Amino acid sequence: MSDSNQDAPAREALKSAPESTPIPPTFGPARRKRRHVFLILSLIWIVLVPIAVSAYYLWGMAADQYASKIAFSVRSEEQSSPIELLGGITDLSGSSSSDTDILYVYLNSQELVAKVNEQVNLANIWGKVSTDQDPVFAYDPSGTIEDLHRHWDRKVDIIYDSGTQLIEMRFLAFNPEDARAIAVAVLAESTAMINNLSALAREDAVGYAREDLETSLARLRTARQALTLFRNRTQIVDPTIDTQNQMGVLVTLQQQLADALVEGDLLRDTTSAGDARIAQANRRVEVIQNRIDAERQKLGLGNEGEGGVVFADLVGEYEGLIVDREFAEVAYTTALASFDGAQAEARRQSRYLAAHVQPTLAQKAQYPERLKFILLIALFCTLTWCVLCLVFYSLRDRS
Description:
By secondary structure, the protein is α+β, with helices and mostly antiparallel strands. The protein has two domains: 34-62 and 368-399; 64-81 and 95-237 and 305-363, Bacterial polysaccharide co-polymerase-like (2-Layer Sandwich). The chain is built from twelve helices and four strands. Residues 80-97 and 301-308 have low confidence and may be disordered. GO terms for molecular function: protein tyrosine kinase activity.
């Protein structure tokens, strides 16, 4: 009750206070000015007119296009050998770039465009619609290979996922059969390219082994020819056998000489000095000794029948030829084993193109993407107009 009595004088004072006078506005009502007209005209010319012209072209002039799609990857089958399972030796080697990266570069190359053009005639396919009717998406058949390569980038879309090593391609043409024909030709050329890479890899893997094999084979042939020439020249198949035979004869003669000497000594002890048997025994010892000297001379100095060539030298020459032949045979066997191993390793590491999406045949024209193009053009034109307006007002405020 006391609070309401205290607030009463304040309320009375507020009622008795004079009313506040209204504040007049500082600016007058908005009126249309020249800059407003300029903004409206710029909006029309920069935004609306390009959108209208683009819409007229896309829906009135641009020809329908059909798409054919393929998707593939490069596979490599590598079978491990038992030695690799023990230590993983082959993991130490590798290539600097993957086959998929090489294929991706090839798909964008002028060489591929030229090869596909030879198969399906890209100029006629993309030139079925005249440039007068569709100057943006049509192709002039009289263009050069460089023009065709530039148009290839507009008609072919390549999506490469470096993580999964998958490649997807989309081909556009003015009818579905032509689009599919281009896709089939590109798939065939890509397969041939990967096969060539695989063949080159195999050839590189066995190249050095083949060179070693050819060198060792030539060395073996040379060693065998040298041994054949030696046998033809000396008329001796194996001098070591002849040497053994000669040594056998010499041992026999020495045994006979020993027997003759013993027999002569017995005769001299049991008979008189003038006995004829003693002279005969001496003659027999002399003959055997001469024969031994002749056999030794044959082994050491040779004879006229052998052309004055020392028989020991013939044996040494023959043994050298045999060593050369045996070494060549061992080298050839080793090189042949290495060559067979390199071929087996090359067969285990084969690469091929695996297409998990074959060339498709479109039933409906989905390109050009008219609505998408209109929205992008509208967005670009609107952003351009907004930036120009901001620049205009920024310069106006500074002046």
